[in-house]
Write the structure tokens for this entry.
Amino acid sequence: DTEVTQTPKHLVMGMTNKKSLKCEQHMGHRAMYWYKQKAKKPPELMFVYSYEKLSINESVPSRFSPECPNSSLLNLHLHALQPEDSALYLCASSQDDQSVGTDTQYFGPGTRLTVL
Amino acid sequence: KQEVTQIPAALSVPEGENLVLNCSFTDSAIYNLQWFRQDPGKGLTSLLLIQSSQREQTSGRLNASLDKSSGRSTLYIAASQPGDSATYLCAGPRNKLVFGAGTILRVKS
């Protein structure tokens, strides 16, 4: 099974709301990733977790707060977002990001976020 | 900063044609390269992964090659079908993926 699940599929929130995106994988992968994809653009890396520790933060604004409660679960907490944060948020996982980049990344279907 | 270029940006072909999609990296120190498919509004489906020690990978009608010396990869699609219509993205050069802008493929029946 190479499935990465993401919930919710769609989310509409106001600029003062707090919401969370959830990502789950049961492949035993130890690296998990958040990407942001704006319309008609390629995905851009936001965060990388390796063995449940944040290893890469691509200078993402603090209104995005990642969390990795366990090796199967990755959350992205959202607070005080701006309309320009509206995008498709994709989660991915791979076996191990320490292996100098030799692992396939498996992506979830994404959460379509709209900020009003 | 690593940049990834994909050519062509869009391609429209009749069913049955063999296709070549191109991808190039500004930094040829490539540890892996992945090709993905994305249908409109959907997530990414991994098609092929080429590791730095490999020159090509095949899966069904798809064949991807990697020329590390030039930092270029090619995705070959044989006998294209309408179901192949999607955006094809290449990404690398290691697990911190940088994506190309994609090739939008339309296969007409």
